[in-house]
């Protein structure tokens, strides 16, 4: 079937969703880790992290402040982490089959983060068939390394169950600690 067929209905149809059980599990892992870290860092009184904060979704005010326009969305699954006004880390989860557009949506968020701070640590957890060797997310990982740099890291698994809450929390903690040089 092609887009030129009368019966073709592209995109997500009424009553459907882009999420499945695996993408929801990955999303929950990142959101739980974000909440845990937000509480942990809020309780830490060291001056080096007293201004650490997470933004889960950019508001109109954030968009205008950091980019100068509101023509985009920015809501990474594990949040955008700021030290004062400096974006230091972003955590994203992507579940991809052999088709779909997770890589396009990833690129939009990654470009926004790079515009705000070219040295941002951008960590992506990838799951699904598309995270397999030489599949779409693996190709994205390779392209990002070439075009965006080493500060864009990927944790790949075709099975979301290979990521535990502890794994995700440890990776996020290490990234944030390195980003604020604790």
3D architecture notes:
- The protein has a 5-stranded mixed β-sheet with strand order 1-2-3-4-5, with helices on both faces.
- The chain is globular.
- It is of the alpha/beta class and 182 residues long.
- The protein has helices spanning 21-42, 60-66, 102-116, 136-147, 165-179, and strands at 52-55, 80-83, 86-95, 121-127, 152-156.
- 31% of the residues are buried.
Helix count equals: 5
SS-derived structural category? alpha/beta
Q: What is the radius of gyration?
A: 17 Å
Shape: globular
Largest sheet: 5 strands, mixed
Distance between the termini: 55 Å
- Mean of pLDDT: 87
Q: Strand share of the residues?
A: 15-25%
Residues in helix, %? 25-40%
Walk across the major sheet and give the strand order. Answer: 1-2-3-4-5
Report the strand count.
5
Which runs of at least 5 residues are low in confidence (pLDDT < 50)? Answer: none
- Summarize the helix and strand pattern as letters: HEHEEHEHEH
């Amino acid at each position: 079937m092609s887009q030129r067929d009368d019966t073709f209905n592209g995109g997500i149809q009424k009553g459907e969703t882009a999420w499945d059980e695996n993408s929801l599990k990955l999303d929950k892992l990142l959101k739980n880790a974000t909440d845990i870290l937000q509480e942990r860092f809020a309780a830490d009184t060291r001056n080096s992290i007293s201004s650490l904060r997470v933004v889960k979704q950019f508001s109109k005010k954030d968009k205008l402040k950091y980019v100068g326009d509101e023509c985009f969305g920015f809501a990474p699954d594990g949040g955008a982490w700021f030290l004062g006004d400096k974006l230091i880390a972003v955590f994203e989860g992507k579940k991809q089959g052999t088709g779909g557009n997770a890589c396009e949506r990833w690129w939009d968020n990654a470009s926004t983060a790079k515009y705000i701070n070219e040295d941002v640590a951008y960590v992506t957890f990838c799951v699904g068939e598309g995270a397999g060797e030489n599949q779409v997310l693996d190709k994205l990982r390779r392209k990002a390394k070439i075009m965006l740099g080493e500060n864009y890291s990927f944790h790949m698994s075709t099975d979301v169950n290979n990521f535990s809450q502890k794994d995700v929390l440890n990776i996020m903690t290490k990234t944030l600690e390195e980003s604020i040089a604790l």
